[in-house]
Structures are given as C-alpha cells and as structure tokens.
C-alpha cells in the first residue's frame, strides 16, 4: 500500500504470543480480493499459529496434515449452526492448547466448503455469541452481527486465550483500513438486513424463491 495509507503502524510490534493455532480455509475467490482481512490477521500472529490453506475441496489423500488436525480431539471448527456450541462454554472446559479452523469466504462460499468436505464434520463445531456488530463497514454483510474472518479470529482468540487485549490488538489494523478507505471515497456498507428493514435496499428482489425466502427471514429477525 502507498506509505500514506500503510497499515504497518497499526500492527503489533511483535507477533502476538498465543497457544491456539488457527487454520484458515480460504475459498480461492477470496484470495484475489483487494480488501480482504486474512493478510492482516496473519501479520498479527506468528507464522506457525496462522496457517492458510486455499481451496474448495479437501480430502485426506491430498491434505494429510489437515486430516490429522481434524482428527485431533483439541481441534474446533468455527461455524454457526444448530449443532454448534458457544465457544465460551468450550473455552471454560479447555486447558490444553487448541487448534481452530475458520472458513474464509462469503457466507455462501463458506457454507459450500463446510458441507461438501467431510473432514470438517470431525472437529467440534463452535460458534460466537452475536454480541458485537462488525467494524468491517466497507463490505456488505448479510446481517448486523455477521463478522469478517479477522473479527471472528480476534474474538475467538481472546476467548480461547482468556485475554481481551488480543481482540483489541487484532482489530486495530482493520479499523485503520476502513478509516483510510472511507477517507478516500469509500462508502459505509450497511448490512443487507439493515437495508431491507429500513426500505433502503435498491437492488431488484431475487426471483429465486429460496433467495427471496432468505431475505424475508432477515427482515423478520429469524435466524438463517
């Protein structure tokens, strides 16, 4: 980035010391996005604590390391759903270093990766309580409580490491990124939920019944 919008001053001077290791499963389309958050996350952590794997399909033969990780009883996968346990509850019971898998992509891309890779069914599924709103305001989210990959990692690590300052440190470069972009012409992106509820959604409504139903659920505060 140009020096006047460089994010280096907002990164920690030294990588954060954490015992939890993150495996970021990144959809290939996310890798080419300019304003993605995973590089910021990786810059905050030691290389051995933030491993990025790019792809759509992951099987045991091609990814033996990932298969071993998924079979580790201390591995968690961060993906919300009816079968997921709140991470706070798991962290209270956990005393040993953990591994956490986070899927990086749009919500539809993450869903595709999660359900079409049997390896990701092996770790314990956990989720975050919807207690904070996303600060990644230069990209549209489905709902007000949907978080970017960096934000998910920041909250999760602060819970697992029992250290609130970790969240603040990791979010610092994201806040700077959004501030720089807004100063140079970017617009605040409200969530699709906010736009629909306030009559501000200016795109044609989808003709696909399934997509239309999802939008109705957003308006009526029904969890998707």
Structure description:
Helix 6 packs antiparallel against helix 7. With 224 residues, the protein is an alpha/beta fold. The N and C termini lie far apart (37 Å). The chain folds into two domains: 181 residues, no CATH class; 31 residues, no CATH class. The longest helix is centred in the C-terminal third of the chain and has 20 residues. The protein has a six-stranded parallel beta sheet with strand order 2-1-5-3-6-4, with helices on both faces. It contains nine helices and six strands, in the order βααβαββαβαβαααα. The model has no long low-confidence stretch (mean pLDDT 82).
How many β-strand stretches? 6
Number of domains: 2
Structural class: alpha/beta
Helix and strand run: EHHEHEEHEHEHHHH
End-to-end Cα distance: 37 Å
Q: Walk across the major sheet and give the strand order.
A: 2-1-5-3-6-4
Strand content: 5-15%
Report the principal-axis shape: globular
Mean pLDDT: 82
What percentage of residues falls in helices of 4 or more residues?
A: 25-40%
Strand and helix layout:
Layout: E1 21-26, H1 28-31, H2 38-44, E2 50-54, H3 64-71, E3 75-78, E4 85-86, H4 87-93, E5 99-104, H5 107-115, E6 124-127, H6 149-160, H7 164-183, H8 192-197, H9 209-219
Parallel strand pairs: 1-2, 1-5, 3-5, 3-6, 4-6
Helix pairs in contact: 6-7
């Amino acid at each position: 980035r140009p020096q006047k919008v460089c994010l280096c001053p907002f990164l920690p001077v030294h990588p954060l010391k954490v015992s939890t290791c993150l495996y970021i499963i990144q959809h290939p389309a996310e890798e080419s996005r300019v304003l993605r958050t995973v590089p910021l996350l990786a810059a905050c952590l030691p290389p051995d604590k933030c491993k990025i794997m790019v792809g759509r399909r992951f099987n045991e033969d091609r990814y033996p390391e990932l298969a071993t990780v998924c079979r580790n009883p201390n591995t968690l996968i961060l993906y919300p759903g009816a079968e997921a346990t709140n991470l706070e509850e798991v962290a209270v019971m956990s005393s040993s270093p953990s591994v956490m898998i986070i899927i990086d992509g749009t919500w539809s891309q993450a869903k595709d990766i999660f359900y079409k890779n049997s390896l990701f069914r092996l770790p314990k599924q956990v989720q975050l309580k919807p207690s904070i709103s996303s600060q990644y305001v230069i990209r549209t989210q489905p709902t007000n409580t949907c978080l970017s990959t960096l934000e998910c990692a920041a909250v999760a690590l602060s819970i697992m490491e029992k250290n609130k300052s970790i969240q603040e440190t990791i979010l610092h470069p994201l806040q700077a990124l959004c501030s720089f972009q807004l100063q140079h012409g970017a617009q605040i992106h409200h969530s699709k939920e906010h736009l629909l509820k306030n009559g501000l959604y200016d795109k044609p409504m989808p003709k696909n019944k399934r997509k239309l139903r999802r939008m109705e659920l957003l308006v009526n505060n029904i969890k998707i």
